[in-house]
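Following the same procedure, sequence and fold were stored together, as reproduced here:

>
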Amino acid sequence: MQVKNRLNPFFENITFDREDNEMILNFGPQHPSAHGQLRLMLHLQQEMIVKAHPDVGYLHRGMEKMAENMIYNEFMPTTDRMDYIASSSNNYGFALSVERLIGLEVPRRAKVIRMMLLEINRIMSHLFWLATTALDIGAMTVFLFAFREREYLMDIIEGYCGARLTHAAIRIGGVPLDIQDSFIAQLRAFLDKLPANIKDYEDLLDTNRIWLMRMEEVGTISKEMALSWGCTGPMLRASGVAWDIRKEEPYELYDEVEFRVPYSDKGDNFARYRIYMVRLES
């Protein structure tokens, strides 16, 4: 028999099971990586979580249905909101799909600019991951440092397209603008400083016993499990699969550039952290 707690409106989502003294708490929708993506139904016995039911899928809010009532170009700004931490990547994915559907060839200069935007956005996304993961585990300084670098990249993006977060910086068939004279100079200045900044992150984290305790041998995912569950990116590469779509199925001009594909066979949180760090370095 379950009874709702009516003593306080704040606790209306809590129920109690009188038979085994178990409390069921709706936790979320919360944001482990971005706002409102995950709801957990937690089964508590006193202060111990004995079971958890994850409920995912709170982000997209029917965007595919919205697209049915728009022409292709009208839908481009909406793709920013699918993952506003990597909005240029979503702009590009949509633009590339339309270009392939209609058989449109993109000029080479536009491909170079799009690759630069994608890689800047990828670094911004990795810095966001590092900052928020460090904050969740208790490393406030790393959060401030990583956001400092991310703000610099956001300034560069803003100088190009006028927006810092939701860029809409890619168009079907190319890009809306050529890069400004200051773009390359600002980017070079950032890249010259980045290695020293990465060393600062590693000095703060790699020997931090709390960080190591909460990352090493925690959340281990085997190679077989990663493949079975369809993991991608650092999740897959940290489990021993050296697979990067830019190498395996190159788009734009990725088949003309050299870069490493870091991987590890450890499969734990720390291995995934190291994959992100090596990707920042490269």
The chain has eleven helices and five strands. Confidence is low (pLDDT under 50) at residues 1-12. Strands lie at 2-4, 14-17, 22-30, 38-45, 48-56. Residues 108-137 form the longest helix (30 residues).
